[in-house]
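Final report, closing paragraph on structural work. Over the funding period we assembled a curated collection of sequence-structure pairs, and we close with a single example.
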Amino acid sequence: MTAGLGNGALGNFHGELPLGAVPGSPQGTLEVFEASAEDGTELHKIVVPITFGRTLVDPYGGFLQYTVEGGDTLAGIARRFYGEANLFHRLFESNRDQLTDPDRIFPGQVLRIPQ
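Its predicted structure, as stored:
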């Protein structure tokens, strides 16, 4: 499993979990709990709604994912994907859950690139 960095209690989490089959729906849930050392019962269980990625629900045309590299800017990423730097606002609006300022992105962040 791979984890990404978040920002406080509402931070983002990116994970990769092997599944036995392609899900029938792009929506699912992930159950997270601690197993009791005494009898294995589930303690402190939470259920998190998830959306499966494009490799599981292909073809998916909603967005791509891009991992920010050193020196990247939203304008530069917009130029790369859309051909116009002034379309950076699309990237900012699509990633408001993790971006508070369009001038502050960091290497390693995984951004959604709307298509």
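Strands lie at 27-35, 42-51, 63-67, 110-114. The chain is about 15% helix and 25% strand. We thank the funder for supporting this effort.
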